[in-house]
Design goal:
- This protein is of the alpha+beta class and 652 residues long.
- It has 17 helices and 35 strands.
- Strands 1-9-10-11-12-19-16-15-14 form a nine-stranded antiparallel β-sheet. Strands 2, 3, 4, 5, 6, 13, 17 and 18 form an eight-stranded antiparallel β-sheet that branches.
- The radius of gyration is 27 Å and the shape is elongated.
Length: 652
């Protein structure tokens, strides 16, 4: 039986199925996302959502949805589903769904009386083209298929409403039409692999409602243009393919092209393989560069996220070459930033003070997975440049003090991954000596010492000794500044200001390869984190016992911002937590880690199926929130699976 499968009972229960989403990406920045019942509930949903660089750097919804109607003996059965204002649904085509499965591509089976119709969706990975294939599995009389496109032609961050500016004209192309509603947009080609009759009847469908936007405190309704519909007969055993793209395609090639795309996909036949597929969806190739998106549907390629996610997204699934491609693009951004030159690649937030620290950690993981020798060959110069940049105080907001610790001013703007702001100021103003900055710095010094000492030359060995001495000074200062009498680490220290909140950032000091703490101190930190921060869905961003605990990520933007890092649970931290757990408890921690990972498997069947959302509420029911698929979370769990596999192999 298919791993990702939902039966008729699950699909026809809208209270459940309406909020299960799917995501398909084409590795070039475009995506298809909707719900399993085909009803869009976000402004980010759409069947063909593509970047339009001529307008801006956002994605744009061209084809919002496509309604299918089966016609027999003059009776029409519409398989579509739309939500309108006032909890009204029309049509209610979900009632015909027999099953939904996702082995390689999303696949629906509909039953209407004696008609059995299969629907599959695939994306072309080399161009902006969506394929939808309809196969008539069974029918006892003549059957007609009608396809009605709903067009938006808008940014994912905006709405479209009925207007007189929309160009509803069309031009016939082979087995289809092309349209462009507004100037500046590319033409949308809608074609079929069989001849079809196009009925041009442009009309606005008004008041479509998107409950996820209302839930997030935004406007939630729009109007969509339906220019008409395609209609064609379909015979038992026959397949009709609909394509939506930015360029025409030969109808006779559609079947071969779609089959080739499906054949190249991996199966989603297990928890692990679902995460591998999710990892591949963050990949974007653009202008010869390789980017790792932070998440879908609204995130871009962010530097910190990229470096944190890259090892799990690539190395943990054996894709060393992909790591090297990502790092080749990232190195251009790093060197341009260090040399104060304009960035030649589209990687955002390079200026954050911890970005280079995470980049060093990311390279360290390559050394662990491949070899330190190869790591030094490929990235030794880059490591040296980054460490020199930090040590020389060249960063505008990262200063190496005489005590060996790094200092950053975060009072007026967010400088860490806890970056929520209100009225331009950080909600969690972490400033001064920040615990994970200095844990990462100590780890970086020790890692570079290791690289130098293994490189052979007397000069490098002398440098290694110098870095060893610096690391020792950093370790002493780290304990003096952060380790408190209760056995855990302060979150940050800025002069007389000390943050005693129990936060997960202290985990990095015990999870990284090199820790400034001894084993007893590590155990103390781990125990308090286990007691106060661990949930079945990730590690809380703040302990319930600390002031300001706000675990429910709900409501309007400002309300959500104040909860974002004040108690919500983050799965990506689980990878570091489990790494720390194994470092402290070694083999005896394996069973515990297996139990922790089980809690994430069920999430593949909720929210966006087959992947992990951005964050979870910190209190029961630990509901998934935020972006529907988040790279750091997928990466963190893949790293944990890899770690568990390594320890199990050692036990065997």
């Amino acid at each position: 039986m298919c791993y990702l499968r939902f039966d008729k009972t699950q699909m026809t229960n809208l209270q459940d199925s309406l909020f299960k989403e799917l995501l398909i990406t084409n590795r070039s920045g475009a995506y298809c996302s909707t719900t399993l019942v085909g009803c869009n509930i976000r402004k980010y949903h759409g069947l063909l959502v593509v970047p339009v660089p001529e307008i801006d750097d956002e994605n744009h919804v061209l084809l919002s949805s496509l309604d299918e109607t089966v016609i027999q003996h003059g009776a029409e059965f519409n398989l579509g589903l739309h939500k309108y204002q006032g909890e009204n649904y029309s049509p209610k085509g979900h009632k015909y769904i027999v099953s939904f499965e996702w082995e390689k591509v999303p696949t629906w089976v509909y039953r209407i009386g004696g008609v059995l119709l299969k629907k599959e969706i695939a994306y072309d990975t080399t161009t902006f083209r969506l394929y939808i294939r309809y196969t008539l599995l069974d029918a006892h009389s003549a059957t007609t298929l009608r396809l009605k496109p709903f067009l938006a032609f808008r940014s994912v961050r905006q709405w479209t409403h009925e207007n007189g500016a929309a160009n509803t004209g069309f031009e016939a192309v082979e087995n289809g039409i092309r349209m462009c509603l507004y100037q500046g947009y590319p033409d949308l080609y809608m074609q079929l692999n069989h001849k079809a009759e196009w009925h041009h009847q442009p009309d606005w469908y008004r008041g479509l409602d998107y409950p996820k936007e209302r839930e997030r405190g935004y406007d939630s309704s729009e109007d969509l243009m339906v220019p008409g519909y395609f209609e064609m007969p379909i015979k038992k055993g026959e397949s009709i393919i609909f394509t939506a793209s930015l360029a025409s395609v030969a109808p006779r090639q559609m079947g071969k092209l779609m089959d080739a795309e499906i054949a190249a996909l991996d199966s989603r036949d297990s928890f692990y393989h679902c995460l591998v597929n999710a990892a591949h969806q963050f990949k974007v190739q653009k202008d010869g560069e390789n980017y790792l998106l932070a998440g879908y549907p609204w995130f871009k390629c962010r530097a910190r996220d990229m470096f944190i996610a890259m090892p799990g997204i690539t190395l943990s699934i054996g894709e060393v070459e992909m790591y090297e491609k990502y790092m080749e693009t990232a190195a251009k951004a790093i060197r341009s930033y260090i040399n104060k030159e304009p960035l030649p690649v589209a990687i955002y937030e390079m200026e954050q003070p911890d970005t280079l620290l995470w980049a060093i950690w990311c390279i360290q993981q390559y050394g662990k997975y491949v070899s330190r020798q190869k790591c030094n060959e490929l990235y030794g110069d880059l490591l040296r440049e980054m460490i020199k940049f930090i040590r020389d105080g060249k960063h505008s907001n990262l200063f190496l003090h005489d005590n060996g610790l790094l200092y950053s001013n975060g009072r007026d703007r967010a400088v860490t991954w806890m970056n929520a702001q209100s009225n331009g100021r950080p909600i969690t103003p972490r400033s001064g000596y920040i615990v994970e900055f200095n844990a990462l710095w100590y780890n970086a010094l020790k890692f570079y010492e290791q690289i130098l000492s293994e490189n052979g030359s007397d000069e490098n060995k002398a440098l290694a000794a110098q870095f060893a001495a610096e690391a020792e000074k950093t370790a002493r200062s780290f304990k003096e500044v952060f380790l408190n009498e209760y056995g855990y680490l302060l979150d940050y220290v800025d002069g007389q200001m000390m943050d005693w909140s129990v936060r997960p950032n202290q985990l990095f000091a015990i999870a990284l390869d090199f820790s400034p703490l001894d084993m007893k101190e590590r155990k103390g930190v781990l125990d308090i984190c286990t007691k106060e921060l661990v949930t079945p869905k990730g590690i809380r961003s703040l302990s319930p016992k600390s002031g300001g605990y706000n675990p429910m990520y709900i409501g309007r933007q400002e309300q959500r911002d104040f909860a974002y890092h004040q108690g919500t649970a983050w799965p990506w931290l689980t990878g570091f937590y489990l790494e720390a757990y194994l470092r402290v408890y070694r083999m005896s921690g394996v069973n515990y880690i297996e139990r922790q990972l089980i809690g994430f498997e069920e999430e593949l069947f909720y929210h966006c199926v087959g992947t992990i959302p951005e964050l979870f509420d910190g209190n029961p029911r630990f509901s998934g929130r935020g972006a529907i698929s988040f790279a750091m979370n997928v990466s963190g769990i893949l790293r944990a699976i890899r770690l568990l596999e390594k320890y199990n192999n050692e036990l065997a």
